[in-house]
Amino acid sequence: MSRRKGGKLKGLLLGRQIDLTSHIVRTSASIRFENKGSSDTTKVLFALSSAQAERLAYLAAIVLEGKGKSKTQSDPLAVSQVSFQSAPRDIVLYSFSLNKPLKRGESAIVEVNYVLTHVLKPFPEEIKQSDVQLVVYLDNAYLLSPYVVKVQTTTFKLPRSRVESFTKLDASRLADSELKYGPYENVAAFSHQPVTVHFENNQPFAVIKELEREIEISHWGNVYVTENYHLMHGGARHKGTFSRLDYQARPSASGVAAFNRLFAKLPPRAHSVYYRDEIGNISTSHLRSDNKRTDLLLEPRYPLFGGWQVTFTLGYGVPISDFLFYSKDGQRFLDFTFGSPISNAVVDKLVVKVVLPEGSKDPVVSVPFPVEITHERKYSYLDTVGRTVVVLRKENVVPEHDVHFQVYYKFNNLALLAEPLMLVFGIFCFFIACIAYMHFDFSISKSSASYQARLQREEVADAIQRLQKVMNVRAAVTDKLDASLRDLARTGDVASCKAARKAAEATLKETAKEVKSIQEALQASSRAASVLLKVDSLIQKEKEKQDKLLQKHSLTVELYERKLSSKDIDNRIAPYQQKLLVLTQEVSDLLHAIDD
Amino acid sequence: MAAGTEVISPRRGAFGSVLAVLILLLIGILAFSIRLFSVIKYESVIHEFDPYFNYRVTQFLTKSGIYEFWNWFDDRTWYPLGRVIGGTVYPGLTLTAGTMWWIANALNIPLSVETVCVFTAPVFSAYAAWATYFLTKEIKGTGAGLTAAALIAMVPSYISRSVAGSYDNEAVAIFALILTFYLYVKTLNTGSLFYTTLNALAYFYMVCSWGGYTFIINLIPMHVLLCIMTGRFSSRLYIAYAPLVILGTILAALVPVVGFNAVMTSEHFASFLVFVILHVTALVHYIKRILTPKTYRMALTMVLTIGTVGALTLVAILVALVAASPTKGWSGRSLSLLDPTYASKYIPIIASVSEHQPPTWPSYFMDINILAFLIPAGIIACFSPLSDSSSFAVLYMVTSVYFSGVMVRLMLVLAPAACILAGIALSEAFGTLTYSIKYQQIPTLSNEPVSEEKTTALKSAIDSSFKSVVPKDSNKEKTKVEGDEKVKEPVKEKTSKRIRKKEKEIAEKHVEKQVERKPLVLPLEASAVGIVLLILLGSFYVIHCVWAAAEAYSAPSIVLSSQMSDGSVHVFDDFREAYAWLRHNTDENDKVASWWDYGYQTTAMANRTVIVDNNTWNNTHIATVGMAMSSPEKEAWEIYQSLDVKYVFVIFGGLVGYPSDDINKFLWMVRIGGGVFPHIREPDYLRDNQYRIDSMATPTMLNSLMYRLSYYRFAEATMDGNGYDRVRRTEIGKKHFKLAYFEEVFTTQHWMVRIYKLKPSKNRQRGKNKRKTKAVSKKITQKPIKSLKNPWSS
Questions:
Q1: Alpha carbon of A419: minimum distance to chain B alpha carbons (Å)
Q2: How far is A2 from chain B (nearest CA, A)?
Q3: I need a surface site. Which of A369, A394, B488, B737 has the fewest CB within 10 A?
Q4: ipTM of the complex as predicted
Q5: Residue B119 and residue B112: Cα distance in Å, rounded?
Q6: B781: pLDDT strictly greater than 70
Q7: Are residues A483 and B449, on separate chains, in Cβ contact within 8 Å?
Q8: Could you tell me the superkingdom of the organism this chain comes from (chain B) (predicted)?
Q9: Set of chain A residues whose Cβ sits within 8 Å of the Cβ of B491
Q10: pTM across the whole model
């Protein structure tokens, strides 16, 4: 149906510019369509050879209106691929829907832009370090049009003036770095005249074989972007040796087709930028940033010659306020760029993952071109239910695709608190468990023999401990008595000495009671049999010792009162002293023995 | 005497323990963070050589799981032999990091394996500091424990092996070592079977982690023997040792890399011998108890005569068995421990590793700093009084000093011992001095006796700070004297609580004789000056440690940096540049040859098959590579061709002045190569016993592959074209030559790594034999034509 209408259309004027300066071939064709049919039409057709259609990365058309300075551009036109049986084989047809119908007899200028990738074939395919890179481009001298075209010209823009060869036709000429074909008049529909250009192109053939971008939204204030690159030099393959010497010493003559730096334009206010690969940080990069932009100059670990590959990861964070907005219906949406920030690179396979915060619901994606959308779930930092991940896949991505896309989702602010609360609760539980462990007795059985035995053992041990304490108190008494005797010798203060003795006797009496009670307790215990003997003898000896000491004490005081010479006193109390020494020794031995 | 304690003690105790926990926490943080200099100054990356292997193993473990790990046959290394990783690796470190990674991921914390590996060592050094605290606390009390923990947290010797990124066995092994010792001493002090079981488990962990476990299994028997000989045999000693030998040996045999070695090699014999001696001693003690002294003496003489004969025969059998094995039952590394000259005499591979050399004196000062002076004081403190545990500390010290003198690497074993003893010394000194100052405050008049109450109150007040100064009878495990609060406590306490308390008491020891022996009091001025000096000494140590951590030990060695004249830092990242190039631009199955030092890094970072690596298990294979490197180009090409090698790389520092390059290691290659292939003779490479690469160098040297690969087109690259080597500080001997069998395929930015590809064999035969050339060219002409065809002509 549309063909019949289309058949009445006619291309009037055509200017086509093919930009071959980089490895991405950009073609811009402006066509004036004239409706010579009998009715209005809203569709115009556009054709590409199937070889080119296969490598087509991007196709867009706009209508130019007005003339001169008042030229305005319409919104991009809707594109759809159509097919007709009558069309020649190896031709792919696209149809643009005009915004307003083209009335009979009227004409409109449509500007078609399309981008092809991997169409510059290096020839020779392998070059040495000292060689320049030559590429071949194959195209049609005429626009492959389903309509008759009245006048058309085609211009190839080349990077340098050096051209090895090109197909010479009637009106072909090479001027400086421009190769022009045309003007040709009244070219029939689907005319085909192959043209080859063989020229020098040393631009970086940066091909990103695979790029995975992960955009993670954290409502705590940042959007984190992680990009995993697999980069390759897509030009003529390097052959033979690589000499660092030549590369460093003669940069103009050696490795001209190789590139060792890439330029990436990160969003403004990007921070925490890192550039690394699987074996660590790559220290060769320069970051320049101000309020409006963040420019990153990346240098791979080594210069990339034809066919050489490298992988790396680029990561950065941007403030969430720059990219997350509220839509009118209260939903949040992320507005982020789709393509790679690296300029002039082809991405063969692009995966964009948008990781929404935990608890987000109903994600809706809006991308201005067709992409494959799937959903995943990702678990990160203490997640319980996991985060929703929107995965967008697209092949053959060029810088033209680096436009903003939106992901709308619903999110409850309370979900933000889930993880901190979980942590608080976890730590709380830990402390509770600690307290519980400190306060509960975790013996398995309270009635088992071993448990009872342990209790009894502990009782015995306790009694012995108490006994030891008492013994120590008593030993302290001994010390005091000794001290008082010494004082007596020095000061001759008999009264204080007597007082000390009285005090000592009182303590001894008191402690004697305690000792008795302990002894009884031990006797009652069945477990204490082994130590009982020792304990008994200890108590006995100790008592003996104290008695002797008291005797000695009283004797000394008495002698002192008789004003005997100190030597005399010493002689008199010597037997006591000896006995005391023996007893003290025995007591301390016994104490040690009990301890074991 | 306990009048004061009654009031103060409980609260002080609680306060003190909270303070101790807080200090320990801070020490842990210190130990962790002082090791992060490398991450801050450089980056979070694995260091050195061996850690790369461990990292690779950990990656495999986390990816494939534990069962696959045990069965892992690695065909990426030791081509064409391969290596059974699961059976030849100490799995402790890998399993630890793998578990940590697994736990983190189970909690949904997305840590990468690399991050976990990088931070394993700092985390475990914090653990090691805590273990040191417990060990020293067992030996000399809390104060010494805290000091020792603080010292080990930043001892340079240990930092050198455990900075972030240094993911080596030692990182966890030192912790395991200290833990094992702690549990041993703990068992020795308590006689608890529970602790001895834990001890066996800790020993098992140590066996899993490091070959240095033989140190434990020899040191502990030595200590047991010491105890027996000094008449310190007790049931606690028996419980501490006997189960450890049985359980420990069984557990050790479970580790594949040890296996039957746990009962078959001489390293373990000492433990079994002491095990027997211990039982004999126990039997003697038992008999002594049941017999009267007279009959006992008779029995003793009888048994001794029979026993001597039996022992002699046993020894004879043992000697015969040991002598029958080729290495006398000892592995080369262990033998070089006993005889420091063994390795350099017989095993060049062991001798060639710098960390296997004996250390120099400055390295002691560098690595343990002031601890070296404090150790003797610590040893003296251990002798007053000598207990089972303090004698262990002394023995540990003495043996580790010996071993550190043999091998630089074992300085690491010395470090904990040094820290423990220095900690004891410092804490004793501080204790004495602060005690003196406290005492000064009381007006002590020589005429009037200090009133008893005052003294006791004072004593109890300084109780806690003073503990370490007062001689303790640590033989006794139970309390002798305690504060009165104990008396007042109800007898029927909760059991668990009581056990805990008891343990605490045991640990804290007793101030029993405090009453009897009055500590010396130094003059106020002297002690104040002393304290200031000690603090000064301590701060020197801290400054030195921080310097060592920040400057000396934090460089990851795969990244080098130098200060530019304008103050900025220039980074030399050549190693990773080369490895990344190999990884991405060579075929996955290509074999790469280099000197063995770079084997681990190549497999881990470049993911390419290597011929030899840092696990030097096959001397012949290494010698083959050494021979190839020292042969002329043609022979080397043939050797490499026979090994299916595609690429050869050399490390070359001559352009930028990187001293540890292959030319400097070259003599070792010659020696190791010559050890197996006698036609490589070291004198051929030396002129008048001097190693030189200038015009006086021998032709053999100048024609060796190593020389040619290192200096290929070097002269052109130098400023004046003279070929001045900045490492050797001389002009090179042979400047302009071409390579016939190798082609340069990649050289890094600073020429530090030069990768060469073996030329295909057709080149070799061209021109030699015309007929052959024709045949060959016929075969290969197909290819160039194909590539020359215009793809657009059709």
A1: 12
A2: 36
A3: B488
A4: 0.77
A5: 11
A6: no
A7: yes
A8: Eukaryota
A9: 459, 462-463
A10: 0.80
